[in-house]
Amino acid sequence: MKRAIVIAAALVFGGLLINAIVDLPSSPVNLRIAVADNMAKSGVSHPVTAVLLNFRGYDTLLEIAVLLLALIGLMAAGPMLPPPPNQPADAMLQKLARIATPPVIVVGGYLLWAGAFRPGGAFQAGAVLAAAMVLLHLSGLLSAWNAQLLPLARRVILVGGFVLFLCVSVALLAAGSLLQYPPEQAGLLILLIESGLTLSLAAILAGLFLFLSRDNGGAP
Amino acid sequence: MSSELLFAVVGALIFTLGVAGTILVANLLRRILAFNLMGSGAFLVLVGLAQRGGESDPVPHAMVLTGIVVAVAATALALALLRKQHEVKDSEEELTEIDDG
Amino acid sequence: MSAALAFDLLLSTALVWSAWRTITANRLDQAVVMFIVFGLLMTLAWCRLRAPDIALAEAAIGAGLTGALLLDALGALRKAKTARRRQ
Amino acid sequence: MVEPVTFVVWLIVLPLAWAAAAFVTGERIGAWLGVVGSAIQTFLVVWMVATWHVAVPVIHRVGGWGAPLGIDLTVDGLALAMLLLTQVVSLPLTIYARSYFSEDASKSRHFWPLAGFLITGLNALFVSADLFNIYVTLEIVGLSAVSLVAIGGGKAQISAALRYLFATLIGSGAYLLGVALIYGAFGSVSLATLIPLVGSNPPQAFALAGLLMLFGLMLKTALFPFHYWLPPAHGGAAAPVSALLSALVVKASFYLTLRLWTELFASIADDIAWIPALLGAGAILWGSWRAIQAIRIKMLIAYSTVAQLGYLFLVFPLLPGQDAIRATVMQACAHGAAKAAMFAAAGVLIKATGQDTMAGLAGMTGRLPLTLFAFGLAGMTLMGLPPSSGFLAKWQLIEAGMARDLWIIPVVALAGGLLTAVYIFRILSFAFLLSPSSVKIATVPRVQEWTAFALAAGSVLLGLRGVELMALLPGQVP
Predict the structure, then answer these.
(1) How much is the pLDDT for B62?
(2) What CA–CA distance (Å, rounded) separates D47 from D44?
(3) Which of A65, D118, D205, D273 lies at a CB distance of 3.0 to 4.6 Å from D181, suitable for a disulfide?
(4) Beta carbons of C68 and A209 less than 8 Å apart
């Protein structure tokens, strides 16, 4: 009964939604023009990076907060089993991981640097580095993290990029408002923020996996 | 219909599927999948609809990047809670078994 | 009909189909695999929408990391289940 | 001289900073950072209120770009009232929490960073004038609230957190699709840009977006019948968390509902205003009924929240009338302070007796008089007895309803007050009438009793100072 009602409601809703989308006249505001007009003052030449780190940089600051708090929530609530002893993993896989890691780091660095003028940036770079860490973990070269015993250095790396971003945002209050970059220094400041974010994002994204991954291989 | 509008319509369909799934599916891991479908559908509507004139628009691109990161944060939290729930269930069942014995 | 639009129609069908299978697949592992396929198809869709930044992020985070998290969770839940049966 | 409006940025930055610092330093320093940070925030917001004299909203353009390219923060009287409520309630709760969690390092280690992010999210939400930015703040609030519920780590907390998580995620998913449709329809997500563009004949996608966003927000506010997730989450969490959630978190999504209803969606809202009012009436009756039947103290308080949230929605047919907004803001503040006091007092009672049942309260008046007095005062506010702020809120609600000949509103409000009296007296009767049991009670630090009492006394005294609070709202004249 519930099933039939939900499916019927979903059909009606989907129909209305598609009808509304297809019927829509063109929009009165066009932000592409505003973005293009202000690109010269943004400090970067890739429009998406300009929106992400400058025009709507405040969204990004809060978004890193979401990521960080989800990681803390995960540590607070996640499985509390002790990490298993390192499994002697497949030698072939370890060799592969060892060979793959340096180029992956190079790719991450490239993506970070490329973000200023073409697709790429801190998120993609951080995600690629996090993937490398997950790969190292799966091949047994990097052990899982224990949420209950987190060394100070690791905590600092996890929040470092966010704190750097926050400090730059607040320092720029002197110019009048939060995150108001002076156009001449905008490029440099954005690169600084993105470099910090890349390291922290890599740690946080990998942490989402490494804090949870407790029972790989171990017999129950 | 332009390709962009086509993707917006597909996004609407996927969102609807996701909502129905989140409500109807009992298994919690599946509900997490369904919730992710909702998000992807909304992202497709956002970009597809904004670009229905055929011109690329960087503002929704940045919003979707933000949205993808928020979605993975929510998914990881949900999975952590789900795994903890299983762990708690297991240990409590063991306890009752010990009590019974 | 142009080749591009034909490709988009094909991609759209595949997207909706994989989303449908994600919800309706009989087994949980099939559902997770279908979801990862869906993520990869989304990456293609972002390329078609001229959003390479999102395509990169979707491939790395949406399909990659989320997929790894889901597979890991699936393994853990399954192990918990067999452990319970054995008792 | 520094303009007080720049303080609003500090209300967002400060809790972010102490949340991050508390994560690095651990629970002992983190607790102090939380208390000191909340004290500074309270000081700033009080200063803002004291120097507030403008009738037009004050705008802070983040990045210096200005909407629609950038994101604007807008402070008006309504936002300021909510900022005041948030800081004034969270300061005593941080002091309470520092004592409450002092014996349990594994819980407080995560409590402080999460509480900091939660307060950031609330403050940022109240002042954001950008629909997509509001989505991000909603996610901060939702995910940190869910994580806080899960901190206990017990079976009940984890399932409550999961249920809450799915509800809040469906809510924000619906909201996000609404934002996508609005960006598609108008090309902007800035409220200031959108409001003049809507006009009298908006496209169908706009109406659909309105329904999606308002539905998502009502789900997050736990409006009956979407309240299913609230009682286990608020009733199962640790006492300081329950207090934060019931007093503030549900008010945030309510605030957004009110704001979008009267500003952005005014053209479509008039025809459907009876729906939230009807659901609100349902919430008052159903929530009170379940509270009367409750066996556990915290479940009673949680169901009371479901009922009290109903009052907030009763005024919707009277919007955008200024008297209606005043009544509902007063109710939000009264309930915020009183409910925080009640959960704090319940936390003391549960720690002392070691059990969360009404029967455990037998004869507690002799042993914890201050805490029971606090509970009684908070109950007075919820019932709406003079001179409490709850009385002021209900009085304004009844007056606004009668001014428009909507008699049903006063009738429901008075019936709700009677039902509230039933469950408040029921819980007090256990404490007063039953003979003291011989069970030994644990000692609870006095600071927890006093903070609970301060919040309860505040909820009553606000009734005498209601005019000053209401003076913040003249900008809302239609």
Answers:
(1) 96
(2) 5
(3) D205
(4) yes
